Fold this sequence. Notes:
Phosphogly_mut1, gluconeogenesis, five-stranded mixed β-sheet, Rossmann fold, alpha/beta, phosphoglycerate mutase activity, glycolysis, His_Pase_superF_clade-1
Amino acid sequence: MAKLFLVRHGQSQWNLENRFTGWQDVDITELGQQEARQAGLALANEPIDIAYTSTLIRAQHTLSIILHEMGDPPIPIVIDAALNERGYGKLEGLNKAETAEKYGSEQVHIWRRSFDVPPPGGESLKDTYERVIPYYERFIAPKLKEGKNVLVVAHGNSLRALIMFLEHLSPEQILEREIATGQPIKYQIEE
């Protein structure tokens, strides 16, 4: 039986500033580094065979701190844009509260929390799902089937898409799911 560990990157600078981050390459804060260290300590006794992360620095930096806390196991690290955060398009960089004032809180809530309505020029959670799940099935699931333990360090929405798939959640159910920064989520994967 293999284990799959999912970790959302530690707090980023734009999380702290309440800004839409999406595909912008923003690093983690000091608190984000602490969260990553805590995640590494929580996973210290778990054997990891391979790690996957996105192309964005906040996920890669988090992964590197986690692995350091785990004693820097000599494992392959795979970096792929398929695991990147949901693209927020024209909202990226904007303050969420100011955006709600400009477009109305109801519209911003729809952009952020509906399953299939994308923000202007961005991706919906459904779009993100359609990017993440084929990648998971093609590259990550086969490793789990081989009995390998896998660590994925990614983003709130790319991980929500994966959790939706793994737990067979409806669009309504996944919209209620929050994923804390730096908190490992563990799955036992049966053959």
